[in-house]
Amino acid sequence: MHQPIAARWSTRAFDPSAVLTREDLVALLEAARWAPTWGRRQPVRFVVGLRGDTAFGTLAGLLRRGNSYATVASALILLAADEGDDENTALYSGVDAGAAMANLTIEAVSRGLAVHPMAGFDAPGAAEAFGLHGLRPLVMIAVGRLADHADVAPEIAERDRQPRERLPLDEIVLNWPELPGR
């Protein structure tokens, strides 16, 4: 597995003094833009807030209490999708959004950035606040640099120390074809 995928984890400990550079932000959004998309529909849209600007304040205000750690991240990015007027577009816009988020995340990790995608936010409030008519807000993404765990609340440091766990392949792969060496 490639190192940025293996190294990815969703920290809650963001450095409140770190600044996201324009170069890094553009690279993250370009990575997301170049994700696979069904039928070339490209339904994914972004609202970007940098810590200290109005958009960031609005996005931070939409977070659920359990995600308050993200208010010190360098950026908050809202990912929304145009679900279109037909069943296929509605279905695959979510797939496209997931691919865009994955690309953004891998690009961020490859640049030494920390990323945490969050579902805990007021999606209808986000649609209203940013005039996202015809778009469905799907995920809020905190982006920044990892903080020193000595400088964050003990409960955040403790959660970040928990090992990442995933189900084994034998539980998620429903069939294994005959392959050499297996």
Structure characterization notes:
The chain is α+β, with helices and mostly antiparallel strands. It has a single domain, classed as 3-Layer(aba) Sandwich (NADH Oxidase), CATH 3.40.109.10. Strands 1-2-4-3 form a four-stranded antiparallel sheet. It starts with a helix and ends in a 10-residue tail after the last helix. 29% of the residues are buried.
Helix content: 25-40%
Number of strands: 4
Class by SSE composition: alpha+beta
CATH fold-type name: NADH Oxidase
Please, what is the CATH homologous superfamily?
NADH Oxidase
* CATH classification class: Alpha Beta
CATH architecture: 3-Layer(aba) Sandwich
> Overall pLDDT, averaged?
92
* Quaternary structure: single chain
Strand line-up in the sheet with most strands: 1-2-4-3
Whole-angstrom Rg: 18 Å
Residue stretches low in confidence (pLDDT < 50, at least 5 long) are: none
What global shape is seen? globular
Main pleated-sheet profile = 4 strands, antiparallel
Q: What's the N-to-C terminus distance?
A: 18 Å
Determine the number of helices (DSSP H or I, runs of at least 4 residues).
7
Could you outline the blueprint of secondary structure elements for this entry?
Blueprint: H1 3-7, H2 22-33, E1 44-50, H3 54-62, E2 75-82, H4 87-110, E3 114-118, H5 123-129, E4 135-144, H6 154-161, H7 169-172
Antiparallel strand pairs: 1-2, 2-4, 3-4
Helix pairs in contact: 2-4
Keywords:
NADH Oxidase; about 180 residues; single chain; 4-stranded antiparallel sheet; alpha+beta
